[in-house]
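The data are passed on as follows:
___
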Amino acid sequence: MAGIDTAPFRQALEEERARIAHALENLHRENPGSLEDESQEMPLDNHPAEMATVTVDREIDSSLEEHEEHVLAEIDAALARIDAGSYGICVTCAAEIGEERLQARPSTAQCIDCRRRDERG
């Protein structure tokens, strides 16, 4: 992108990456085993509602982990675009991405028009 200073975007992306990586570490530390491992550790007289609670908690954690890993991948891709000199260029139409959009979402790979088209279907 001509004339844009990518340093603040790199810094924002790296800070967000560190925050997400830390959150993922916490999730892994809090839930080191599988749902099966946890259910085997529960007493045999366990009430079905307790197992359901454990299952829901694990599904929530799994969804959070999946989302955070997706965001990390977007951040890594944005950092790679900065390194390659293509940051701020829409990967769909090759138009410049508006600086306001980059400020709002530094990991974005698409201009607002292409993103809206993709969301519509």
